[in-house]
Design a protein that fits this description.
By secondary structure, the chain is mostly helical. The protein has twelve helices and no strands. α8 packs antiparallel against α10. It is globular, with a radius of gyration of 19 Å. The protein starts with a helix and ends with a helix.
Amino acid sequence: MKAAGMLSVVLALVLAPLLLGVINRVKAVFAGRRGQPLLQLYRDLFRLLRKGAVYSRTTTWVFRAGPIVGLAATMAALALLPCGSLPALAAFPGDFLLLAYLLGLARFMTVIAALDTGSAFEGMGASREAFFSTLAEPAMLVGLISLAKLTGALSLTALFDQVGLSVWGAEAPAMILLAVSFFIILLAENARIPVDDPNTHLELTMIHEVMVLDHGGPDFAFIQYGAALKLWVFGLLLAGVLPFGSRDPVWNTVLTVAAIFAVSVAVGVVESTMARLRLARVPQLLIGAGAFALLAFVLVVR
């Protein structure tokens, strides 16, 4: 059991950077460009790890601890999630609450590291990140509680193991609402269009990128790698609510990994066909995700 759980974590650690390569390649296809290599993020990470880091005299240990603690919290969150038929490395009743807390800890460390620089510019991005997270996190929790109520399981491993064609056949409207809600939350939590643009350099529209402007070298590598792992985490959450007809453990795991990469393709399509929303519209989108999750909960408990 522990070996299977470790394999689930290893898959995420190895394949997560490839998700961003898939997104960039999809965007390049839509733009008629050749685009970056699929393995570009791996090269960037190795290059950043070989560099040194420069720290401002105004920063404290909080700035240095932010990327490390954030990456550690995201890796710990991975240990709570199953991958197809591979169980989670650590599974226990109520672990989905710990998952939310770990993701919140990673965000908190990024926010306070940005504030520690003393820059009003980074403080602006930190303020936006904190505000949007207060709308995205409740939507995710309501969605997970809906799944727990539907399946009668309190552990993520048991919860996703029971989601299948039979559940979709009985509660299709609720499951569709949860899938849409989780996809919107994925876009918001990973700073993707239409909530945020990871490639923007416009001061008035930056959210996540502005918080990490002062990081460099290994610290920035930890942030980039943590972002890839976070995308894998939310990809697993979304893939977990999708119906898979195969009960074969190997095929179920393969289909789950394929679903995660399909989600990254969908993200690339969204970013290629939509513009970034105005900041005033982002809360409306996140409230909509919360409304979908709440409606799914109502349908489950009716």
